[in-house]
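A note on notation is needed here, since sequence and fold are reported together in a single record. The reader may check this reading against the record printed directly beneath this paragraph.
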Amino acid sequence: MKKRDLVLWVIVSIVTFGIGGLVWFAKITNDVNFLSKQQDKANTPLVPEEERYTTSWIAAVFFTIITFGLYGLYWAYKTSRAVFVAKKAHGLVDSTDYSVINLILWFLGLGIVIQVILQNELNELSDIV
């Protein structure tokens, strides 16, 4: 996992008419998959199985395209929830659960804002992981 510049990715998404947004979507998906598979020293998963998001980036992009974005609703909730649980597991107790907020943003058509929120949360975790 590495930190990504939020402003840069928003600009790339706009300039490339959404193609950059799909690439960013894939990168966020990979990072959340990485977090979902982490274990502590006793080989116990940090993120419980019901909270994990382990769909590959290619499947997530494919499902989002063939469902005309509806899969994005599921993706927004599950990835937000997995990041929140991972932050708690890494000791960031003052973190916020953005899963419901991201669902509302999805219904408002603000997918890029969801990506900004998730990337910001992942950037906070990248210092720890």
Remarks:
- The chain has one domain: 6-126.
- Helices lie at 6-15, 19-36, 57-66, 71-89, 99-107, 111-126.
